[in-house]
Amino acid sequence: xxxxxxxxxxxxxxxxxxxxxxxxxxxxxxxxxxxxxxxxxxxxxxxxxxxxxxxxxxxxxxxxxxxxxxxxxxxxxxxxxxxxxxxxxxxxxxxxxxxxxxxxxxxxxxxxxxxxxxxxxxxxxxxxxxxxxxxxxxxxxxxxxxxxxxxxxxxxxxxxxxxxxxxxxxxxxxxxxxxxxxxxxxxxxxxxxxxxxxxxxxxx
Length: 204
Known about the structure:
Number of strands: 0
Oligomer: single chain
Distance between the termini: 35 Å
């Protein structure tokens, strides 16, 4: 029983870090500024639906696509881990501008699909992490962790204003920074595992 819970937790945590639902709260509030309550709920629905659809589709066809073009899981681990680390570094460093480059889309009626749904909620980090969790722990734990995380995203966006009041802008940013550091660590871990797989295959 404990082993099963451990597997689900180990699958949930990396996806939770990659999704960064709390870190997206101030971005969401900036994008929906000036919209009505009805429009906000529509944007939230579009965001979560798009993010979930993209992640689930990639989860089931991503490995087939990689196999078709001759990319191994070890290759993807190294490339994906490097990408995660670079993404986390970009988000951590103050001169990089973080995710704010999407802020100009505030008035776009498709803001729920882009940039909220993808790439802010489901971006390269989520796609890479999901595929890695699928390969490590299987379909059911990965799909379950993904669905739970998307529910958390929906809840955090619905309660976005309350979260901002509770944590404050500084608290929200601090939480996001911690998530980015964990994301960087996951990236390093993935690169390490990928290199280890390549070396093991070469020696055998």
